[in-house]
Amino acid sequence: MRSDHVLWLTLAVGAVTWAFRYLPLRVNLTRMRTDGALARFLAATGPAAIATLFVAAILSDVQGGVTPHSSFAGLSLPLPLVAGALATAGLWFVRHSVVMATLGGALAYGLVFALVA
Amino acid sequence: MTQTHRSPFLRGLAASLPIALGYAPIAFSFGIAATHIGLSLAQTAGLSLIVYSGAAQFMALAIIAAGASLPVAVLTLVLINLRHLIYGPTLMRAARPKAPLKIAWLWSFSLTDEVFAAALAAFSRGGVRFSESYMIGLGIGAYSSWVGGTVLGGLAGAGALDDFPALAAGLGFMLTALFLALLLAILSPRQIPVIAVAGVVTVVLMLTATTAVGIVGGMIAGALMGVLLPGEAVRPRDAEGADAV
């Protein structure tokens, strides 16, 4: 993406995000139902986005970069990736801390990378 | 919670400390990831300063790296932040009736998932009286950590780690680890269908079309799945995490 496009992207999304956070306070949407279809759709975009981003990240790591219409040829499971994922999940289940799980997973990845690279 | 003699601003600032501590490493990883895909330090810092939304910022990196056009990128990031529309009304329901909103334009800027969840918990169960000064304090602490962490990460990712490949590799994996940790954090019977649908659709579309199509399509499919689930849409625990956060 061109440099000026990144600037426009930043400004546009920043303005809209602020508007999403501020305008409902001004138009008194306190009567909006939090169990309605619209509210459920809006609330689900966050978890859906996290799932999407995780799948995209892990698929890119496994395939070494995704290209259009790519197949499973050459698929491999590098040890650092496996170690990092297991460490992240293990630390989460033990400590229930996103920060510790993230840092621990990155540490495990780096350590195994240093051993096998 | 016992009322103290501290000003509402200082109480809000103190309440922001857990959020700030959680934001710092995630913002650091964002800074590294952004410079890795080719963004300058100014662009990286600008995203955190102006957008200030972890989920949208990380999605922006994925969309930019995938080569999406500007209109598609803007639409995708706007879609991912639609959930913020319900935060203000939900928060004001928990606040005292007819609470003044003289500078809501200022503190609402910092209404991320974590700030919203912390404020909602404070007003609903924590015995804290709503005030705009409290919201300012809560927002400043979290925002400072997010921007500061981003800048540090941007500096680290801009070549400072070239002589430390294992460290660079570990920090590069931090993004994937973050998403996995967030996924586990939000995992609940209610979210499983949303996550499953989003994940499957993303895989299918990424392998048959492009990464950008996969990301956008997966997110929409997962959100639509959420419409089919009954019950209350937003609870404090459900809100935590999407902003990374």
What are the SSEs and their pairings?
The complex is a heterodimer of chains A (117) and B (245).
Chain A: H1 3-26, H2 37-63, H3 79-95, H4 98-116
Helix pairs in contact in A: 3-4
Chain B: H1 8-15, H2 17-36, H3 41-51, H4 54-65, H5 70-80, H6 87-94, H7 104-107, H8 113-124, H9 132-160, H10 165-186, H11 192-208, H12 211-227, H13 236-239
Distance separating the two termini of chain A: 32 Å
Rounded mean pLDDT score of chain B: 84
Give the tally of β-strands of chain A: 0
Described by strand count, sense and barrel closure, the largest sheet of chain B is: none
Query: Count the strands of chain B?
Result: 0
Please, how many helices of chain A?
4
Please give a handful of descriptors for the protein shown.
heterodimer; A: 117 residues; mainly alpha; 74% helix; extended; B: 245 residues; globular
Question: What does the model show?
Answer:
- The complex is a heterodimer of chains A (117) and B (245).
- Chain A has four helices and no strands.
- Chain A is mainly α and 117 residues long.
- The model of chain A is unreliable at 65-76 (pLDDT under 50).
- Chain B is mainly α and 245 residues long.
- Chain B has a domain at 8-174.
- Helix content of chain B is 71%, strand content 0%.
- Chain B has 13 helices and no strands.
- In chain B, helix 4 runs antiparallel to helix 5 and helix 11 (192-208) runs antiparallel to helix 12.
- Chain B is globular.
- At the A-B interface, helix 1, helix 2, helix 3 and helix 4 of A face helix 2, helix 3, helix 4, helix 5 and helix 6 of B.
